[in-house]
Specification:
Number of helices: 4
Radius of gyration: 17 Å
Oligomer: single chain
Helix content: 25-40%
Order of helices and strands: EEHEEHHEH
Largest sheet: 3 strands, mixed
Number of strands: 5
Mean pLDDT: 78
Shape: globular
Length: 114
Amino acid sequence: MHASSRARAPRGREAGRWTVRAGAESAPDSQITAKLMESMRSKIETALEAKAVRVADVSGDGRHVNIDVVSNAFEGKSSVARQRMVYKAIWEELQDVVHAVDAMTCKTPGEIKN
């Protein structure tokens, strides 16, 4: 097959899976500010009626965050479904400033007690 006749994946899609290209077009000096982290925390708390939410820039580069959420909304959901719920709440931020969520924990209040 000639190289130019190969089918190309649509932009933002690789190997049959959607990829998030967050921050690709943002300015190199874009950083997560305390205001942005509070906005993300608030959006997650509101969307999931969360009991507790922590959003932290633990890498120190302002583009990578760790997120911890405790919510009854996670009851009966798989870990993947729980993470999707969180990602949905902060989708806008993932398209611009935030490059990656390095770690995420999503638990119900009952799981915290155990």
